[in-house]
Amino acid sequence: MNATTAGVMQRLKDATADLHTAAERSDFQQIMIAGRMPRAGYVRFLEQMLLVHAALERGMRGHAAAQPAIAQVVKDYQYQEPYLLCDLAYFGVDPASVAPLTSTSRLLEHIAECATQRPLSLLGFHYVLEGSNNGSRFIARSVQRALALEPGRGVTYLDPYGDALHARWAQFKTDMNAATFSEADAAQIVVAAQAMFVGITSIGEELLAVLEIAVPPDVRAAAAAAMGGSHAQGGGHHHHCHAEAAAAR
User: What is the sign, positive or negative, of the torsion defined by CA atoms of 169, 206, 223, 36?
Assistant: First the structure.
């Protein structure tokens, strides 16, 4: 069966909706979008995402030749590791010194298992990270103001595409829907996407705990008010690192 007849992107969106909502409502994301994340928390976040992207992108590059769908979907500019290395260099971080948090290690193990046993499922992990660019561009502005960063420095990962963002997301959706996946492959891609949402949310939670970062009361109040408003309207659009991705999807 060709699972694309049902539209793999719509299937991904539907199957990850609840996890997407949980991610966008997380304390970590609320602090990020409010521009209240301390420099240490932001840099540690970049460090953990470097590990995640390095593992995922190593797997996708390694299987691109044998898996036509990966080669068809994943363009060179979608590999985010160089952007993270650029940002970490700006903050004076040696990539070799980066160590995974417990939650990061769990996610890395899952990615490694999928790369070995179910390589096409790597596209599910990739879907979440690529989609997050739609919202993280707005977070880049908040972070740049909050940390008084030099223009365009330290936020390359959050805003890698600039004005090409919407065109590149549209191309990604087109390529995913055009790829041929068996029903089993499509199901595994969905499971991987769900795991990435859970993993990223867990990393954020652990970062706040390790660094003892609390949600400022005004940020929590504003988030609660926004959620109340969305409930009153029957749900809908939330502003966080993945919010605009939901709208774009």
Answer: negative
In tens, the pLDDT along 144-157 reads 999 999 998 999 99
**Measured in whole angstroms, how far is the alpha carbon of residue 110 from the centre of its chain?**
16
- Phi, psi angle pair for 27, to nearest 5°: -60, -40
The pLDDT tens digits of the residues spanning 92-118 come to 999 999 999 999 999 999 999 999 999
Is the overall model pTM greater than 0.85, yes or no? Answer: yes
Looking only at Cα atoms, what is the longest distance across the chain?
A: 52
Domain spans in the chain, listed from the N-terminal domain onward:
3-248
Sort 172 into a burial class: Cβ within 10 Å, 0-12 / 13-18 / 19+.
buried
CATH top-level class of 3-248: mainly alpha
Amino acid at 148: A
3-class secondary structure, 168: helix
